[in-house]
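Protocol check, entry for the methods section draft. Step 1: assemble the input record (protein sequence plus ligand SMILES). Step 2: submit for complex structure prediction. Step 3: store the structure tokens unaltered in the notebook. Ligand used here: MTE. Step 1 record:
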Amino acid sequence: MRSPDPTDPRQTSSRRQVLGAAAAATLGLIFRPAHAQDAVDLGLRGGSGVRSLTTAFPQKGRLILQRTRPPLLETPFEVFDKGVFTPNDQFFVRWHWAVIPTEIDVEGYRVAVRGHVNQPLSLTLQDLVGLPKVEMAAVNQCSGNSRGLFQPRVPGAQWGNGAMGNAKWTGVRLRDVLDKAGVKAGATAVRFNALDEPVVDGAPDFEKSLAIDHARDGEVMLAYLMNGEPLPLLNGFPLRLIVPGWFSTYWVKMLNDIEVLSGPDDNYWMKTAYRIPDTPFANVRPGQTGFPTVPINRMGPRSFITNLRDGASLPAGAEALVRGIAFGGDAGVQAVDLSFDGGKSWQPARLGQDEGKYGFRRWETRWTPPGAGAATIQVRCTNTDGAVQPAEANWNGGGYLRNVIESISVKAG
Ligand SMILES: Nc1nc2c(c(=O)[nH]1)N[C@H]1C(S)=C(S)[C@@H](COP(=O)(O)O)O[C@H]1N2
Ligand SMILES: [Mo]
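Step 3, stored output:
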């Protein structure tokens, strides 16, 4: 079953998780036009960064409208100042195809485990809930997060920095599910497919795969709770893949098919899309060709100031609080350092509680602007593998892997 079947007698309204008529209507595209003041400027150079704010999507609060169909919704940056866990209703949303079920029959829902296995399975959510439970904080970051800040600009969704979020995920280990089916010798990869479908015939269904050892590493999980609640439909209810430390293109939502492969996965989304230059920071010169590419994979460290905006005013000579979030990418946060002198010297920030190496980590420091005038504040994260954010922005035609040291300008007076 690829999507809810209206002729299926089991799908009576008493038995389904129904999101309500309003939800269905909204996914079908009706959204209230935003008022003029309900807009935000993402500060994208060389093109308009002005976007509407919307509250029109089911189970979702105020988000930046990047695209309506399929829904691409960005988290307003000030949300990241509130704490390390991004609220479900303001967690960003990204889909490739607009054919997304607007309701899920929880009892009829099955996840197939098939392919190069001893015992193909068809698991219910109850079956999954019966497996050992695991919990992990992890950052879900779109491969194209911050793409709108690339110079020169590149095509694709023009995200600011809000196509990311951190949640506490509850679910089961993918390894436990694969072990239940019994992976046969010679398995190479595991491919994941879901309930969403292409809008036009012949377009490639969204599927991603992980190498077999990665899939069985004991960290990759199938999550049925997000921050202790069922996932919002738009974030993948009732089940999604969590690939800690890796970009969220692999975090397949509304997962209903797990296929163990015994050969390479050359489906469109692995072989053609989401590839990056095989160079440090996936960096190439604009116009450069002939470089090798690999499927996008691990995230690098990033850090952001969340309590001061670019252009903020601070009283000269008075101590100011500077606070934000950081994450290590595919490793924990080792250190967050700030520079107030254009990168000549760096001083460590105090780190907040460690909620797990793949999650956001709070940091804060205090700084007294020495005198009146303009100043720049830079923030830099080093992860526990020693990877550090670069001083120069990377560039590639996909708009991937931006993790340059962030800076804001402030005025003291
Ligand atoms: N089934 C399905 N899963 C998917 C996608 C999709 O289009 N379909 N997009 C992926 C991409 S590119 C991103 S950035 C994340 C977004 O997750 P979110 O919408 O929960 O924030 O979902 C991933 N999982
Ligand atoms: Mo993405």
